[in-house]
Amino acid sequence: MFSSNNNFQAMGREKDKLIGKSCKELKEKHGFDKDGLYYLKSSTGVIYETFCDMTTDGGGWTLVASIHENNINGKCTLGDRWTSQQGNLENFPHGERNWANRVIFGSAEGATGDDYKNVGYYDIKALDVSVWHVPNDAAMEHWKASAIIRYHTNSAFLSLNGGNLYELFQRYPLKYKGGTCQTDNGPSVPIVFDFGDAKSTKEMYGPSTYGETEPGYVSFRVFNYEQTPMAVCSGVKVIGCNSEHYCFGGGGYFNPARQCGDFASWDWDGYGTHTGWSASQKITESAVLMFYR
Amino acid sequence: MFSSNNNFQAMGREKDKLIGKSCKELKEKHGFDKDGLYYLKSSTGVIYETFCDMTTDGGGWTLVASIHENNINGKCTLGDRWTSQQGNLENFPHGERNWANRVIFGSAEGATGDDYKNVGYYDIKALDVSVWHVPNDAAMEHWKASAIIRYHTNSAFLSLNGGNLYELFQRYPLKYKGGTCQTDNGPSVPIVFDFGDAKSTKEMYGPSTYGETEPGYVSFRVFNYEQTPMAVCSGVKVIGCNSEHYCFGGGGYFNPARQCGDFASWDWDGYGTHTGWSASQKITESAVLMFYR
Amino acid sequence: MFSSNNNFQAMGREKDKLIGKSCKELKEKHGFDKDGLYYLKSSTGVIYETFCDMTTDGGGWTLVASIHENNINGKCTLGDRWTSQQGNLENFPHGERNWANRVIFGSAEGATGDDYKNVGYYDIKALDVSVWHVPNDAAMEHWKASAIIRYHTNSAFLSLNGGNLYELFQRYPLKYKGGTCQTDNGPSVPIVFDFGDAKSTKEMYGPSTYGETEPGYVSFRVFNYEQTPMAVCSGVKVIGCNSEHYCFGGGGYFNPARQCGDFASWDWDGYGTHTGWSASQKITESAVLMFYR
């Protein structure tokens, strides 16, 4: 009575649809124009499923990653895949290395409830990024409407950096003491808002950060005073050195330890208080979804 | 010599079989009647593979989750996905939230060796649940025969609670101090045994628990004296307040800390001793498999 | 505008290719002869993707697992899936049990950046193993060329041990105090080198280990002085009892604790120093890829 056959073959039926390497290819070559889940096939032949934004600014945006803070009190503990899950360790200067390796985790539908990284993160060759801050645990069909911020770049900056974030972070490694504040930061790229605006985005972070940031950009590999690199500063260009209060992701060591974690030290002056160096509760409790096009 | 093509397309061949949203649909619409692995397709288009019980009480049961205690001495540490993996934290009152989010983990064949949760957990709209307690590391082809307890509900109680456990736990959140013992417990539903019986199931838990439980039910969201909610009490209705000794899963904080974990405090009077408040070794070393129909 | 259909069906198109249970079957029955990713289908109907080495010694080698040391300073902490992730615990004598259960994790392309175990590990019936030591984070297309050591067995030893490592470790359980050094070790099997040689492989481990090993073998379930079993000793036969310095994987308890972890105590006399009992940096920073044929 135990079945060793299965019904997988059925998936080849129904009306034929075509497959591509990215949402952009699905949109441009095959005309798919609805937001939702699609299957993609990597250049090495991996077939995977992710969310395509087929409508913003002409569509063709592929979801490749989400950064979700599961427990801001857990300082570089389980769930901090975009910094370190090993504790705050000086002899672990690169942290988990997930910004710059081919390890994948999570699922598209779970992207607001846990970290997510798919094959597209390192496989797709793209020009621009789009970023959404979506409240934790929002269901996929509500992501777009519930996002508190949505923006994209349109300068093709990725083409100068290897075509995706995997390649960008080969060029700008995230290593403790791999550079110094202001001097060795990576690119800062102007953004166009699809929901929200530059000023309100900047002001999601703590009031004490306002003097350190210029709104209207997305920035990569930004060092702080203690020479810890952070991966991404969303919505802002960085003109100061306390980036742990408004950037996310990075290497494996922060100083002091209570700054270690995917959302670093967004809670420095209390969780979600939006006073001093603390970000608002809204942005602290939103996952960051990253797309390529 | 490096292949960038692959043979995935072959899966569309062989004799066509049909695909559905649940094992029930596969059984009713397409006549599949053997236990085993099948592919399902969610309402959002996710294709995933899980185990279907196609024979018990007419069949059509979809495996959607397993709760596996990997280390009862690890108190809310790695592997306690159904409570907390962050340690026992008062300021983490919801725990991992996996009962009420769309995060998935594990694989069907690995469901007796680690936790499992698939897309069906939140996608399938069902009427009833079935529960199997299967010895750890049993191979799939032996699950049914080796289960120490198997039962199902037949009152369509899920239809009153949103159609699945994801929805039920939206209605009955698992939050520390979100309610009190006896007063705020969720539904308790009569069960029909497919293997074992009500009395022997109840008596798998420690002798000291007998005065607190009535056999022949499955219960959801049960608070203990310390206001910690547990997710499921398998086999029993709860008439006491020491539910940490016979319920599993829940929020992120237990008091005292040694009660924290997926199987909570089933080892209070020693591991597997079946004396005092301790459950039998048999049920402690079995994974709990949960099905919908 | 939200799509609930998807384009998965497209995968049934293009020219038909055939599917098998192992890379060997794909090679022998269907003539695939390029290294790369292929889809396989298990005896229970699970479809999964892994890397096939289609060229070494006639090809037909299926990648089933990788052992990757993410942080040798983390002693049986997160990432030590092949020993224990629960800390070094005497009452956790079997550790994670992943050598002997059906839990799977990781992805083929991520196999040099994190641990990997697929369905083939327990499903495929094979005769021999092949082992590659590949530098961490190497991309799949460079694995073969960048490997520091590659070898295979050709004595069909797996046929005497159940046909795969899952079965072998049922016969030779990895349990602390489950045996003693020298007396209860598992099989030691001669190897043929595909890249590198026996002597240089042995000499990747610390100079102090040379008196304890004979080059030209791969060995399984080897106990040390403290009765801790290790899973695999790559490149060597073991004639001593300090196996924690040149074997990997194993149970959940080591004595002292600083020997606990996937690469055990390869760093005893400093990380990557290649002095005393410490292995070279090269082998310490390489993932071990395991294939069946």
UniProtKB/TrEMBL annotation, chains A, B, C:
List, alphabetically, the Gene3D superfamilies matched: Gamma Fibrinogen, chain A, domain 1 (3.90.215.10)
Molecular function terms from GO: metal ion binding; oligosaccharide binding
Q: Which InterPro entries match?
A: Fibrinogen-like_C, Fibrinogen_a/b/g_C_1, Fibrinogen_a/b/g_C_dom
The Gene Ontology CC terms held by the record are: extracellular space
Q: Which residues form the Fibrinogen C-terminal domain?
A: 14-64
Alphabetically sorted, this entry's keywords are: Calcium, Disulfide bond, Lectin, Metal-binding
UniProt-listed Pfam families = Fibrinogen_C
Is Signal set as a keyword in this record?
Answer: no
Note the coiled coil stretches, chain numbering: none
Q: NCBIfam families given for it? A: GGGWT_bact (NF040941)
Name of the protein in its database record = Intelectin-like
Name of the gene this protein is made from = LOC114655780
